[in-house]
Design brief:
three-stranded mixed β-sheet, 4 helices
Length: about 100
């Protein structure tokens, strides 16, 4: 019986990488904030559907760049496609329980 931890899939590694990307204004990672709508990885390409807390978010470009950078660091991901979705819009209901706790709710 092996005692080694299982190796995460590329998609799981990509999700974990996104937990290290924070909204600089709110101090919560994009996963717990509910900015990630969907993520898929197929044949080395990551497709990330995401939203921002507001269509005119002043740090939206910074967050998108940080998500792109984090995904490109994942072994096995060669290309990244970011697709911003504004419908349905983000609401505070998108925040995970961990995110709410981090924000003091």
């Amino acid at each position: 019986m092996s005692t080694e931890a299982p190796v995460p899939s590329i998609e799981e590694a990509a999700r974990q990488a996104l937990y290290n990307v924070y909204d600089p204004e709110l101090g919560v990672n994009v996963m717990d904030l509910g900015l990630v709508v969907a993520l898929s990885v197929d044949q080395g390409e990551a497709v990330l559907r995401y939203r921002l807390t507001s269509p005119s978010c002043p740090v939206g470009g910074m967050i998108a760049n940080a998500m792109d950078d984090a995904l490109r660091e994942v072994r096995g991901i060669e290309q990244v496609l970011l697709l911003r979705e504004d419908d349905p819009p983000w609401t505070a209901d998108c925040i995970s329980p961990q995110g709410r706790q981090a924000m003091g709710y």
